[in-house]
Amino acid sequence: MAPPFGLHSNRRYVELLIAIILLLINGKVSGQQGPVGGLKSSFDPDKGFDEIIVTAQKIEQPLQQVAASVTALSEEFIENAGIKDVSSLGLYTPGMVVSTNGTSGRIYIRGIGNNLDFLGSQGAIAVHVDGVYQARQWGVFYDFVDVERIEVLRGPQGTIYGRNATGGAINIISAAPTKELAANATISVGNFDQLNLKGFVSSSLADNVSGRLAVSRKSHDGYTDNLVPGSKNPDDEDLVTARGEVEISSGENFELRFLGQYFSRDVEGPAIVPTVDGLAATLGAQSNTDPFKVSQNTDIFFEADSHGLTAIATWSFNNGLSLQSITAQGKNVVNYHLDTDGTEVDAVHFENREDHEQFSQELRLYNDKSESRWAWQAGLYYLDEDTSDTGVVFLPAFGFDIPVAGDIDVEAIAVFAQGTYEITTGIGLTAGLRYNNESKKMTSPIFADDRAKWKDWTPHVSLQYQLNTDVFIYASITKGFKSGGYNVLGGGEKVGPEDVWSYEVGSKIDWLENRLRLNGAIFYSRYDDQQVNTFTGAGLARIDNAAKSTIYGAELEVFAMPTSTMNVGVTASYLNASFDQYLAADPFLGAVDLAGSRLSHAPRYSMTFFADHTQPLASQASISTHLDYVWQDEVKYDVFDNPSTNQGAYGVVNASVWYTNAKRNWKLGLWIKNVADKVYFTSHAKLNFTPEGTLSWTGDPRTYGLELSFDY
């Protein structure tokens, strides 16, 4: 009888992890005492919810005193909810939608984002990993490993985060090295031959030197069957992630951190489901309505390798000032081949390779508010980015191919400052301003070379009032800016910049001795020259600037601790986002007036409910359960009002149960995602030309497994 979950195919990795676990158990016997790491509770039963310290404004602040909409997810919640990468964040963040277009992530917050992934495009949500901006959307879907917390800032972040943050920003903060020896080893197995191995070790390396190393390897078989004889099943995935840090301190005045990360993703796929057969049907393609059965005759694959190095130096001065330098270099290589007709006939397929390098430098001077009524920061930012792309759209049905190739060099420079002044006790005024100067150069063997530069000022003003120890209210005005660019993988057209003005009023309330937390906001935004992706009659992407849009809505986060062993939460969002002016070009219908039409990736309503319960047992043991239900209203995945590119309202249930033995520092859990096996689509693409019609990407089916974790 074969081992369960297909462990025979990964035996060497299991043996390696067992060896690590035995080593940790031996270390435990040596005298390590008490619970560590993820085994701690996130709240004190006697004091209510803990004070959460965030760096959403690049300075340490209590979450309940940040004059902005911020969702902060702790390490424990990330683990219990099974949040594996950026694609899962939208489930627990009001107003956030992540569309997974096969191999890439399209992130939207409050209806603002970008649905184009190729060269010449740029996201509207700035993703930062340990303070470093990730320029390409391919690079933001790496595996979450050894993460301390994640912060999602909703709404424009033009002053502090600047570049491409018209919709918001995501901060991913890794766990820091410890002076005491700490380690973890975790193994998880599940259906579809899932095998996840991860672990970390952290310790002092010498006087004033500490280090941390985390590694992860995750794999699973494909969720979709390929009906073409001799073809591989798509969605088979293999991820390898490694992250390391060395921290050097010199007394209390200087700290130097070196961080490195590596990520590799190898996918047989993705599976592309044709919901409209078009020309493929006339060539003999069979109709198929099962989203988990495809007929793809072309060898499909996606390979990505990414690595980055970061040096963070911080000097602290006696007068309360600090100076921080963040120097970072990164490289991404992406190679993929898609069967874009999604059928067994040879109609259309696409092969492409992208090479990307980036270098960034940020200098930031800031003060410690504890010694002054002012809290301020000022800085300089520089980014150099080079992206090259080579690909071919194969059209055997037409007897010709379309080559696509080009190179885009980016140089971005910014100067920024922001300060908060305490006018009187409990009342503060914040003002900030950023100057953005960005130039781009396009070179291509297909289109004429060109160079352009865009400049813009992005201000921020907010007024905050600490009404009492329980109630904090604020009002803000912010501008976000995203520079223009070139559509190298389309018609080579130049795209203008976009900007958004956002007005927001919010409150953060802790009641009932910190056992009830209510955070809410209402907002109104004016979105000008929005960069929108459509497809031309040749099946290539086109980027337009939509004239004007209006976005308004409300968000609410409620967290309660009804008993000392339970906490529950509800997040909800209402969003009204529509074009005021946009005369779009449809390949078949010609000019289409989309005024009054909803923006894509902007569901009117969304809601998440979750509950955690911990039942203490004898000998420092406990049983914890986690349950969440995520519901999303109907959403458009395409700019045009085409029913075939809409996803209807749907809900997904996830659950897990954990047995924790804090005395022995081990944990065993059973988890299940998409309990009801709900079928839904994470993206639709209306390519608007005869050979392909509408293509769809399917969300994960029901998955489940067991996880065993040891801490030292």
Largest sheet: number of strands, sense, barrel closure: 22 strands, antiparallel, barrel
End-to-end C-alpha gap: 35 Å
Low-confidence stretches: 1-43, 688-692
What is the level 1 CATH name?
Mainly Beta
Gyration radius over CA: 25 Å
Whole-number count of domains? 1
Number of DSSP strand runs = 44
CATH topology: Maltoporin, Chain A
User: What CATH architecture label applies?
Assistant: Beta Barrel
Structural class assignment: mainly beta
Share of residues in helices: under 10%
From the spread of the alpha carbons, the general shape counts as: globular
Instruction: Assign the CATH superfamily.
Output: TonB-dependent receptor, beta-barrel domain
Strand coverage percent: over 45%
Helix count equals 4
How confident is the prediction overall: mean pLDDT? Answer: 85
Overview of the structural elements:
- It is built from four helices and 44 strands.
- The protein is mainly β.
- It has a single domain (4-711), classed as TonB-dependent receptor, beta-barrel domain (Maltoporin, Chain A).
- The two termini are 35 Å apart.
- Mean pLDDT is 85; it is low at 1-43 and 688-692.
